[in-house]
Amino acid sequence: MAKTYDYLFKLLLIGDSGVGKTSILFRFSEDAFNISFISTIGIDFKIRTIDLDGKKVKLQIWDTAGQERFRTITTAYYRGSMGIMLVYDVTNEKSFENIKNWIRNIEENASADVEKMILGNKCDLDAKRQVSKERGEQLAIEYQIKFVETSAKDSLNVEYAFYTLARDIKAKMEKKQEASNPPGNRSGVHQLKDSDRQRKPTSWLSRCSLL
Amino acid sequence: MSEAEITTNTGDSPNDLVENGLNKLVVKCKYCGSKILDKKLGKYILQEKELPLMQQDTRKEGEIQNEKVNQFYHVENMFTFDNIGFTHTVDCYKYLSCADCDAGPVGYYDMNSKHSYVALSRIEHA
């Protein structure tokens, strides 16, 4: 069957427990499906298709909830990931301080050129805020990572964040392709080859875990 | 999910929905209209499977209510989907849900074959 997309990016949501990673992926809130079978089991990952400058991009977005209690995310989780959303809760000082630890964890375990973005989540809860937007911005400047405040509850900036991260990964990939291909010999062939490689299922996904 | 017998049969397909063994129309979420699968990308198959109900009766604690489902669209590569959610694994299956409103299961994913199956009765054709 013909290929139905141009790019496939694996993205991870990382951060302390309770910062709202699952809410970013999963609209738990008070909707009709709150008591559904799906919410009981929980979402592992989602596939979303977006259009970036005329290219069809598939995002595979993984939640790491439940893993973070080990304070680190295992190497297996990072394997093949091209983008990481670092999430903290603006009403939780500790979760903000821990972003530095998560960045260290990423540097130790993930691929060196993984794209990162910092999300200050729950920005709708202004009365309970412990971390100012300026501090978030300062941290982002320090690490040279993009930053945005989000509210998963109000769907504020969540889509924007994913588009931004995906666009940065795409730009990085295209730059790499340009560097590895002599000018004039740049055709869709290389791009196709590259994304075909990504299509291979990763071993940790294919492993069947028995609960 | 119980181990129902899989009998693949492509006969008796509903003509208004299936053409050349594939979904003629776009597959969307029944509840929010989110696009799940583009046309002509799912292979129509008949197989009897038990799927948990989308709305579980919470009065029956610890008991999952299922129903038998017969008609599915078979999707070999998960990245063929436009928008879809995969639950955590239960007995070598992941359940499929709407990526936008989380309604589901709209089908299931088999961890061994890595193929996905979307139940016709759980989605909307558009």
TrEMBL record, chain A:
It comes from the Eukaryota. The keyword Metal-binding does not apply. One of its GO terms (molecular function) is GTP binding. It is a lipid-anchor. One of its GO terms (cellular component) is cytoplasm. Keywords: GTP-binding, Lipoprotein, Membrane, Nucleotide-binding, Prenylation. Pfam families: Ras. InterPro entries: P-loop_NTPase, Small_GTP-bd, Small_GTPase, Small_GTPase_Rab. Residues 201-211 have a biased composition (Polar residues). Residues 174-211 are annotated as: Disordered. Belongs to the small GTPase superfamily. Rab family. This is Ras-related protein Rab-8A. It comes from Bicyclus anynana (Squinting bush brown butterfly).
TrEMBL record, chain B:
Keywords: Guanine-nucleotide releasing factor, Protein transport, Transport. The keyword Transport applies. One of its GO terms (cellular component) is cytosol. GO terms for biological process: post-Golgi vesicle-mediated transport; protein transport; small GTPase-mediated signal transduction. Gene3D superfamilies: Metal Binding Protein, Guanine Nucleotide Exchange Factor, Chain A. InterPro entries: Mss4, Mss4-like_sf, Mss4/transl-control_tumour. GO terms for molecular function: guanyl-nucleotide exchange factor activity; zinc ion binding. The keyword Cell wall biogenesis/degradation does not apply. Pfam families: Mss4. This is Guanine nucleotide exchange factor MSS4 homolog. It comes from Bicyclus anynana (Squinting bush brown butterfly).
